[in-house]
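Sequence in, structure out. First:
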Amino acid sequence: RRALILQALVEEYIRTGQPVSSRSILETSGLQVSSATVRNDLAKLESYGFVEQPHTSAGRVPTHQGYRYYVDHCSPARLRSATRVRIESFFTDVHRELSKLLQETSGLLSDISHYPAVVVGPGLGDERVVALHLVPLSPTVLLAVTIVESGRVTRDIVRLARDVSESDLARAETLLSRAYRGSTLAEGEAAVAKIPLGDLSEPVRRAAKAVTQTLAGTEVRSADIYVGGTSQLAELWEDLAQVHSMLGLLERDAVVREIVDDPGAGTAVRIGAELNVDDVELAVVSSDYEAGEHGIGRVGVIGPMRMDYRRTIKIVEEVSEGLGESLGRP
């Protein structure tokens, strides 16, 4: 019974944004109990840390723990047929360049969910390197340019501990090109590791090692981030300071990647303190998608803790599935 009362309270608070009274819970939950029973159960839920009372005479609102319990025990909502058709039709006939598709997908997800949306690209995945070039920017700084078979280009700044001559850099480029060409980044790194160190001069060895270490992180850095729906921030957060905080957050790719990413596969919901974000209370619903040879990416929705979780979870799952199917087609 207390679980049903908590569910009714969370869903009513999501709908109205106002503290929820015991009378409202009775009207929406369908429980055949007295208002005194509901008040007693609310007091218990408050002692558990699931709800709190902003003011003495006000109703209750869910806490972070209350949202967490609700999300862990709720099931995704059923989407309206028009929403399902819109998602399906978007991915039915995909003839877009990858970056354009991912950008448009973030717009679709935001438009349907009514929250800011993020699509994290799949990175380079199993794509094979077509060419690798080293461009000197200074005696101790160079630019590593990697081109993969899909045509995507990554550029990484490599910093060296000591000066390297152009002739030594050219030798390092030849060495690395042979190791990486036709291979994935991981395979190229393994090929470089097998090269006998005694066959290389010390400057070439240092340059090759620095470039290899830098390219090892390219897989993560090459995953582009596409954000849609920032115009909805003012409607979701009434406090202008929080709107500004959200705008600043969404402009920092590393932070966005961290809050949308999740160590486990599948759908994840992270709430409040779980996100380690200051100044604004957030909730994030995200799910991964498989992009065939491109690897794995992630889609997500970012909103206030007072988010319609059941509907949002279903939308994120439907969009991630549609995106994965479209990118995995031969």
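Second:
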Amino acid sequence: MAKKIYVLDTSVCLTDFNAISHYGNNDIIIPLKVLDEIDNHKSRQDGVGVNARGFIRFLDSLREKGSLIKGVRIAKGKGLLKAADYEVGVLPEGWDNSIPDNQIIATAITLTEEQRPLTRPRKVIVVSRDINMRVKCDSIGLNAEDYVREQVVSDTTDIYTGFIAHLVDDQTIDQFYGDEEIFISNEEVKIHPNEFIMLVSSSNEKRTAIARFTGYNKPLVKVAECNSGKKKHSAWGVKPRNKEQSFGLNLLRDPNVPLVSLIGKAGSGKTLLALSAGLEQVLEGRGDYKHLIVSRSVQPMGKDIGFLPGTMEEKMMPWIAPIRDNLKYLMGNSNETLDTYIEQGVIEIEALTYMRGRSIPNAYIIIDEAQNLTLHELKTIITRVGEGTKIVLTGDIEQIDNPYLDGVSNGLTYAIEKFKPYELSGHVTLVKGERSKIATLASKIL
């Protein structure tokens, strides 16, 4: 197969600093404008800043081997990496040469023109996470593609839901409710550990039974129904209102499942459910967890208001306000009770920035708005988990504020798909809004 030339856009480098290692024996071109833009992001204290600094270090390690302008071998069996500029005047008439994206496109056009006279011209491809950048390239005949290495599914509709319906004989339903052991074989249906299954009678679809699958050699486990009316099925006073919330509470209470992910639209109850289960197990002593740690992605919606004054706690206050609202509600709307637990260190509201380097044992950790995290950031957080710790990831993949991520490339989606075959994890997709009628309607029609 003929070697290709890939021109990487700034968005790719800021999504994955190791991106240049994933193109085999093909050559990689880094436009000078990309280097300039990456330099502007290196001081950021988030995942974009981490990738910017990592990318600069990567280039510096290559620079020690040779000249970036002439080309340096990335690694054995890999292609060359070059820094390149563009020829003035190659852009189409009317295009603004001062726009960064246009300068990167101009670099790709220059490379394409250099290949034309050759006997075997190589294909030049612009790689960008920016949709409009790819559209502009296509409009002038340049090849362009998305950076898809971190996409574990092709579409958000393909994301693992943690729930499956399965037809069985009517007799099986009777046996299940009669407390007989029911097994599912791998020949019947493909199902993952801790996935919830609704057994549906083949003779009467209204006859159902809900269970949790733990393994092909293990019997199905009963799941408490949300309409059971029993107090033990509520957590810290919060009772599940639908079957998906019942599934979530089941996993949140299980100490044998240290990683739980909950996704759902606004108002589906994912954060409140996670907090209520955490408070129950930490404050009521129903688990071995010594404290509750809550954090969320610091990613603004809309235009950022800039730097905030004060201590770390004061800086975090605007970001963790939704978490405090939920905790205050669960504490009977008492600020004093909540503040007391925070002062005692039983409840910690932590900035994700300060998670790095920590080893956190015997804690119940909740990471809210995890859809705004990159794979690298989420890996950093999960690898902080010590013995006896449970970590809960919540988020809405339809509300991503990070410009370098989408529904199929964010860290939360990646974690859901990669962890689903393992018994140590469980996932639930909450589908019904429970906040209010107007919130549910808004999530559907807006």
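Remark: Residues 28 and 80 are 6 Å apart (CA to CA).
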